[in-house]
Amino acid sequence: FKGGDTCEYLLSSGRFLGEKVWQPHSCMMHKYKNSEAKNCLIDKHVVFIGDSRIRQLFYSFIKLINPQVKEEGIKHGNIPFEDKSASIKVDFLWYPEVNGSMRQRIKSWTEGSVAKPHIIVVGAATWSIKIHNGSNEALAQYKINITSIAPLLEKLAISSDVYWVLQDPVYEDMLSESRKMITNEKIDAYNEAAVRILNSSSRNSKAKVKVFSVSKLIAQETIMKSADGLHLPESSRDTNAMILMNVYCNKIMKPIDGSCCQPQPPLTLIQKIAFCFFTLSIIGYLIISLIHRNNYRKNKSCTDLESGEEKKPAISTPGVSTLEMLLHCFCKLGLIMTYFYLCDRANLFMKENKFYTHSSFFIPIAYILVLGVFYTENTKETKVLNREQTDEWKGWMQLVILIYHISGASTFLPVYMHIRVLVAAYLFQTGYGHFSYFWIKGDFGVYRVCQVLFRLNFLVVVLCIVMDRPYQFYYFVPLVTVWFMIIYATLAVWPQIIQKKANGNCLWHFGLLLKLICLLTCIYFLSYSQGAFERIFSFWPLSKCFELNGNVYEWWFRWKLDRYVVFHGMLFAFIYLALQKRQMISEGKGDPLFSNRVSNVLLFISIVSFLTYSIWASSCKNKTECNELHPSVSVVQILAFILIRNIPGYVRSVYSSFFAWFGKISLELFICQYHIWLAADTKGILVLIPGYPMFNVLVSTFIFVCVAHEISQITNDLAQIVVPKDNSTLLKRLLCIAGFFSGLHFFSAMQDQSRH
């Protein structure tokens, strides 16, 4: 840890990921769009002073504001640019040498009430080397001139951003005869003089000229592609312009994926309250532990010398043990949340941009596949989609999704479309699992609902408080929560139709099908009526949960993307349980699901359907068009996978315990990755160990998986305490939870008011 000044890293160090993607050391660089650049630079005046290399940088910079600009200005003269819509002025001033003329121009901005530019970018040296044939006298004069200019630049740096651009290396083999005297040795000497002299007299940290040395590193990698050996290729100078934009604009625009030059966000009121709560929980747990330890020592088992019998210690009361368990959970959770905050809100650990390559995605996939097959065991039961099999399914899907996120594979459309099927498969299991429970058990009690809602939402609610993020930010949990409530409402409203009742009269099956048809009709209507959907979720308090950036459009998009798959899961569960009840399928160990002929035909159709979907997804050219078809066709690959996995008896009788272990904590893995495996709210990668990418991934993954497992245990323990089976106690707890959310809403309103 060398301090939190990521601006210094951005301006001085980094490396290329691939050929064109520049990765600053320790932080993430945002790619600014034209609209963002205009918003940042509104009413600003930017000046570039120097030679033809600085002119190149000037053009790349103004193209970030207006891409239509052409490089048609006077080569050896001043070039003005103005964007009247945003009142932005950017000027290039032709001063190819550091001399008296340049000094006079800079001095004019320091005198009287002359308007100073907001950003000043200066750099020159190659002309001095060329005109004076690389003489030592020219270098000595350069040092004298820059010494006279340095105090003026430092004075301007008090109120403006001043950057001195060091000279890029040249590709000597390509230089023309008139430029042969410009050698990298001479350039290094001029750069060394500039760095030594600039800021040498400055004692005020604010009055500091920023040395733009990163362009040297970029040029070292790309100057071979130069057209003349002196000027950088277009992609390299565009990178330099983007770095300049990040240095100035990140602290103003605060982009999520631009961690360079961003200050640490101040603690909110709710975060401070959460910090106090977790601190008190840790102190309370330590006090109770000490008291129990002292009591244990006093009542420790000992042998009675007279009777020869062992005395047993007094048993602690249930009230104290429940309190201790509660404080123990919050103590662990407090330490874990501190780690979350340090990873993704404090400027303690480094963050880097993602960069996709096929090998970074497919090699880890192959690796976990081998591990999964290695840990193959026999299942306890051989029913279709038994618990071990669904845990295995969730596990391998979650691991694939994690690799997809960390490798940045969303940029590769075929992979993106297949991952969309995996997300749909999670929701399919939601429909299948909850429908099966309510249909078989007929348990529509409040206890069941509260247990499910608590287990789904506990971690997300805590993260919303600690990480200062809206509920909708963790989109998958709101999605499964709403679908659970829809399934519950569909089956719980009158008439309640369950398997036991339907077995007595077949007409009840038609009643249930009518309910499912009504549900499908509602889904279809809402998916094509954005206005109706937004009106429903814009009502308070739903709007507090489902708004993101002031509207519910993101929620509508997420819901619409997999709108039919939960219904498909419910329908599949209904058909499967009906066939099972009528003994039309064989689920014995090693037996095929149907007769050999039917099984072979269904297996062939399933394999063809599975491959057909994959071919279609791999041939996708337009993400929007493919997303439109996805809700209707994703079920094809899901059903094909279920049949391939369950029709052969020997395949149905085994499972991977490796994948199943991850499946049991899949929800926690999905949520925790946002902040302690990825970084900047999933936009980048957390770097605990800089300079060693593979070792860093191993260490951060180990911690991430351990934390997810621990949070799963904490959630299960707290669910038993917070959601008891006794109805009267449960009602009191629900009133307490309602009070908690009312208080949270009150403090949130205070927080919003103070921000405005």
Automatic annotation (TrEMBL):
Q: Does the keyword field hold Metal-binding?
A: no
List the EC numbers from the record: 2.3.1.45
According to its UniProt record, which reaction does this protein catalyse?
A: CMP-N-acetyl-beta-neuraminate + acetyl-CoA = CMP-N-acetyl-7-O-acetyl-beta-neuraminate + CoA; a ganglioside GD3 (d18:1(4E)) + acetyl-CoA = a ganglioside Ac-O-7-GD3(d18:1(4E)) + CoA; CMP-N-acetyl-beta-neuraminate + acetyl-CoA = CMP-N-acetyl-9-O-acetyl-beta-neuraminate + CoA
Signal sequence annotation: none
Please state where this protein is localized.
Answer: Golgi apparatus membrane
Please give the start and end residues of each transmembrane region: 269-291, 325-343, 355-375, 396-417, 452-468, 474-494, 506-526, 561-579, 600-617, 659-679, 685-709, 730-750
Q: Give the domain of life.
A: Eukaryota
Per the record, membrane topology reads: Multi-pass membrane protein
| Domain Cas1p 10 TM acyl transferase intervals | 253-734
Question: What's in the GO CC field?
Answer: Golgi membrane
Q: What class of enzyme is it?
A: transferase
Question: What PANTHER family does the record point to?
Answer: N-ACETYLNEURAMINATE 9-O-ACETYLTRANSFERASE (PTHR13533:SF1)
**Protein's name in the database:** N-acetylneuraminate (7)9-O-acetyltransferase
Q: Which organism is it from?
A: Acrocephalus arundinaceus
